[in-house]
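Reopening this one. Same input as before:
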Amino acid sequence: MKILLIGDIFSMAGREMIDKHLENIKNTKGINFIIANGENIAHGNGITNNYYKFLLEHHINVVTLGNHSFANHDIFNFIDDAKNLIRPLNYPKGVPGKGFVTINYNNLKITIFQVMGRTFMNTSLDCPFETTENLLAKVNSDIYICDFHGEATSEKIAFAHHFDGRVNIIVGTHTHVQTNDAHILPKGTMYMTDLGMTGALDGVIGVEKETIIKRFITGLPVRHIPMETGRKQFNGLIVEINETNHKVTNFEIVNMIK
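Same output, byte for byte:
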């Protein structure tokens, strides 16, 4: 089977790339299963019920979130009922929503989960390593897929090596910059430090560049305005898995610019 993992979908520019190009990628590449990060889909900050439904209508099987999971207040109206939406599993107890979902697909049990890194994230979180150990001990699946939402590349890489051979696919999100390190680890885990971003290409990680440049020059706070004009990008990774032995057999980086 072929699994497409899509990097952070950012605001209207990201939605436009999904609307215009996802179906073609799905058909031409023979994609069977799609996972996308949607924590920035609502004007660059959070997700709404309508945009969650938009992603499902575009045949995305699972939507992951991240540190902006609860940035848009509408999330509280539907997160507990959204069967295919996950937020970081290592949020403290009592946080709404769920951190993993198990889907039966073509006689395979596929568990998709998300953990968030603790380095540079300024969020109260449980240990992503321990949280994942607990999940693997309690949930029996044929294939495990992890979206590691984090800032520090070292934390993501260390996590991947620790779970090499136990989690089939580990991909990073959050930085909005696609990394050039997609590879299969020694024990068989498919790994990529960051999938990148689906949205505006010529801004600063999706935001109008002038305001961010001003912030760096002056040190003053600025309003983040999503960039919706100019060139756009569609970033992600296609991973092929043998349905019999559940091993990764091939992969292809997606980096489309329009």
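So the earlier flakiness isn't reproducible anymore. For the record, The chain has five helices and 14 strands.
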